[in-house]
Every structure is written in C-alpha cells, then in structure tokens.
Task: inverse folding
C-alpha cells in the first residue's frame, strides 16, 4: 500500500512540475464599433449633398465600413434638389481606396430622367462622383430597356457608357 501511495505521490509531483505552454493571444479582426438605425447627412457649403440611411454599420480598425443589412443613398444637386438614389442589399466602404461597393440587388435611379439602373454589383468613387461595374446591367427608361455588361457613369446616371451593350434600342441623332 505504501508503494502505491509513493507511486501516486510521484505522479502528482511530476504532473505538477510540468511547464504549461503560454497561450498565443489571438488578434481581433472584427468590427471596433457597431451602429444601428443610422440616418446621416453630408453637406457642402450649407447644402445637403448626400443622405445615407443604413440599418447597421460595422466600422473596422483600418477605417473600412460594412453595411451588412444594406444601404440607401440620396444625392442632391448644389441647389438642394434630389437628383438620384442608390440602394444595395449589402455595401462596403474601402477606406484605403476611398471607394464604395454595393452588392446584391443594386438599384440606381435618376429622378429627373426617370431612369433606373439594376445590377448585382456596383462601385462608387465619391471623390469623382462616378459609378462603375463589370457586371451585367439593365437600364430602364420610359420607352426602352438597355442591357449590357460593364458600365461607367456619373453617379446620377445623367451620362453613362455601357461597355458591351445588348438588345434593341433607339439611337437619336
């Protein structure tokens, strides 16, 4: 019995003397802040230029922002009249490139021309006020619909180029 106790004691002592490995700390890459039900206005010279509505915004350490529940933007001209809107099911702002990406059901409307652009992915460069995509696009107007792949446009769709147009449409002189 004493031999058994001696063996058990030696086992406990040897187990207790083992050096524990230090756990490697994990780096957190998730959002630093989370905002909900956001309604934000951007202005220039005391005039609203862009209105942003988002259900949720996640902000990351590098300045990137994710809009996992979608994004809605209204664009205003220098006089304060709304000229266009942009909706996306999911959006992301890349701080380093100063560029936005909308994904899912992306819709841009030109209010004055009664035009609507639909695509599955669209990029917006705020500084140049340009939108672009390499994806399939549909532009609906009062009397026609234009299809194509790839688009470069000003943000209100007042001027655009479809890189590979398809379908039948009227060309005006």
Result:
């Amino acid at each position: 019995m004493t031999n058994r106790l001696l063996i058990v004691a030696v086992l406990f002592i040897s187990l207790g003397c083992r050096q524990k490995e230090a756990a490697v700390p994990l780096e957190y890459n998730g959002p630093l802040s989370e905002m909900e039900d956001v309604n934000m206005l951007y202005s220039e010279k005391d005039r609203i230029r862009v209105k942003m509505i988002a259900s949720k915004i996640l902000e990351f350490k590098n300045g990137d922002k994710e809009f996992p529940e979608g994004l809605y933007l209204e664009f205003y001209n220098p006089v304060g009249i709304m000229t266009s809107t942009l909706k996306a099911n999911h959006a992301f702002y890349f701080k380093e490139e100063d560029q936005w990406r909308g994904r899912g059901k992306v819709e841009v409307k030109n209010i004055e021309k009664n035009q609507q652009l639909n695509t599955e992915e669209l990029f917006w460069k705020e500084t140049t006020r340009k939108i672009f995509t390499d994806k399939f696009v549909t532009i609906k107007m009062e009397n026609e619909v234009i299809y194509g792949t790839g688009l470069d446009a000003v943000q209100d769709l007042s001027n655009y180029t479809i890189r590979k147009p398809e379908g039948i449409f009227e060309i005006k002189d």
Remarks:
- The mean pLDDT is 87.
- The chain has one helix and eleven strands.
- The CA atoms of residues 16 and 61 lie 41 Å apart.
